[in-house]
């Protein structure tokens, strides 16, 4: 199973690091670029005898040897879990994803509703202000002037007095 992506409980039986030719340039590249290869790791792993595995994929026999291959819609993999455990894990994962989607959907609808109400209130306020500006004939609410504490309540504010000037020409 060369295309298996599921980790298996394999036991390492051979492990050897073959370093590449080292030079100051290679050292600096390895120091500043961690992905730069510094050697070739040769590892052999085996599956211990007596382990039960579940294979998922398309099963066929090639000269009496079973082969598991993936198809376009289903990747093949090996697992230590039984078929029932795999189904139970998939069910739990599906349930978590479903309820997470429901919660995120409700949260999104709430945020969109809040934004819509806020935009509607702003539109109503702007519309009301435009109506007031376009109809100056209507009486606007009078502004109340707050008098200073030192002024008497009978004092007339500046600019509110009418002054009549009388001119006499004879003298």
Automatic annotation (TrEMBL):
Residues 2-112 form the E3 Ubiquitin ligase MUL1-like domain. The chain crosses the membrane at residues 96-117. It is an enzyme of class 2 (transferase). One of its GO terms (cellular component) is membrane. It catalyses: S-ubiquitinyl-[E2 ubiquitin-conjugating enzyme]-L-cysteine + [acceptor protein]-L-lysine = [E2 ubiquitin-conjugating enzyme]-L-cysteine + N(6)-ubiquitinyl-[acceptor protein]-L-lysine. Residues 128-147 have a biased composition (Basic and acidic residues). It comes from the Eukaryota. Its EC number is 2.3.2.27. Residues 128-152 are annotated as: Disordered. Keywords: Membrane, Metal-binding, Transferase, Transmembrane, Transmembrane helix, Ubl conjugation pathway, Zinc, Zinc-finger. Pfam families: GIDE. It is found in: Membrane. It is a multi-pass membrane protein. GO terms for molecular function: ubiquitin protein ligase activity; zinc ion binding. This is RING-type E3 ubiquitin transferase. It comes from Eruca vesicaria subsp. sativa (Garden rocket). The lineage of its organism: Eukaryota, Viridiplantae, Streptophyta, Embryophyta, Tracheophyta.
């Amino acid at each position: 199973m060369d295309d298996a992506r599921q980790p298996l409980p394999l036991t390492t039986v051979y492990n050897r690091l073959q370093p590449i030719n080292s030079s100051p340039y290679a050292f600096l590249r390895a120091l500043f670029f961690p992905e730069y290869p510094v050697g070739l790791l040769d590892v052999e792993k085996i599956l211990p005898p007596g382990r039960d595995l579940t294979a998922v994929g398309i099963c066929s026999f090639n000269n009496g040897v079973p082969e598991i291959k993936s198809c376009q819609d289903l990747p093949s993999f090996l697992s230590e879990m039984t078929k029932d455990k795999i189904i139970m894990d998939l069910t739990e994962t599906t349930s978590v994803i479903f309820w997470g989607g429901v919660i995120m959907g409700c949260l999104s609808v709430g945020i969109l509703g809040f934004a819509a109400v806020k935009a509607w209130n702003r539109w109503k306020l702007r519309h009301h202000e435009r109506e007031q500006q376009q109809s100056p004939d209507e009486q606007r609410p009078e502004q109340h002037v707050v008098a200073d504490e030192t002024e008497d309540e009978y004092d007339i504010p500046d600019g509110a007095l009418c002054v009549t000037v009388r001119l006499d020409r004879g003298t």
